[in-house]
Structures are given as structure tokens and as C-alpha cells.
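Researcher: Structure for this, please.
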Amino acid sequence: MTSRRAQIGRMRRVALAALDCYALPDGRLTFVTHGENTTFRHDSVAGRYLVRVHRPQRHGRDVDSSAAMLQAAKKRLQGFENVDLRRGELEALPVDDAKLDAATLMLVLHHVPEPQRALAEVARVLKPRGQAVVVDMLPHDRESYRQQMGHVWLGFSDDHVRRMFQEAGFEQIRLVALPPDARAKGPGLFVATGQRT
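Model: Predicted structure, C-alpha cell format:
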């Protein structure tokens, strides 16, 4: 496993643990995920991510702007009746208001010109008291990421993340920097969670 893949795997385990914390007592959870894979493209992580959270009482929606990535996810998810794949943008999710229990954004906000707008859209589709889980990069100085990988933001500070969550209508905001992994060569990561008011 490459160091970048190790870092992403660790980040996913943290997010999955966070989702488990937000499941209803009977295990029901309706969520949406949007993320990035190891090729640094906005894509569906359904094949490796949604399958892992598959439980009969959970329903997942994976939203992606790439038809090719959704098609690949569809192939990987054959036999999983509780996963809905939809094409759409993070800033205009194809989900009705107040429909979801939780949303995850996995290494995607640094690609979005207006991350505050994306978080506001996530708040729109969450039920009251719904949970958002964001995993992204801490501030870094790797300017080459803009050209090589399409990054708009070079990470986010604690204050910036908290302000974005608050302005989007979240409370009980928590942010934790993930411990550095000696095998990881990329910037440090954080996990942030917030509850929709």
C-alpha cells in the first residue's frame, strides 16, 4: 500500500467510525457521501466506502459529477439494494431538503471554489440534528498541488473550518487533526464534525 493510500485508508476508517456514532439506535442511517479517490479526481468512493458501511437498515446515496465514476461504482455495487448513485454537483446536491441523517465529504472541499457554499448545501439536505463529517487537509504550502491535482485551497485552518460550519448552520462542531502517519507523504489531515441546527 502506498503512503498516500495508507493515509486515505486511515481517513476512511475514522469517517466510518464517525458514521457509526451517528447511526440511530436501531442502526438506521441515511447518508450521502462525496469524495476523492487515490487518482486525485472527484469520484465515487462507493466501491470501497459504501460497501463497507452496507447494513440492511442503512441507505446510502453517492453523489458524483462524473458519469464514468458512477458507472464504475454501479459495477462494484451489484447486489447492494440500499445504495443509490446519483449524478450531481456538491454545490447543488440532487437530494430533497432535510432527507439525510448524515453526510460525508472526503478530501473534496479543497477542490471547491466556495467550500462554504458546499457546506450550506450539505446542511440543506440534512435533517435537523443531522451530522456532517468532513475529512480534508490541514494548511500546507504545496503550491504544486494547484496545477498537478486541481486544488483550489491549500488546506484549511481550524478557525476557517469552524467558521464555515457555523455560517452553514451547524453546531456542536468538533475538529481533530489526525495523528501523522510516518508512511504518508501528503499534508496532514483533519476530521471535522458538526450537527445541523
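Researcher: Any notable elements?
Model: The chain has five helices and eight strands. The beta strands are 29-36, 42-43, 58-64, 83-87, 100-106, 126-137, 170-177, 189-196.
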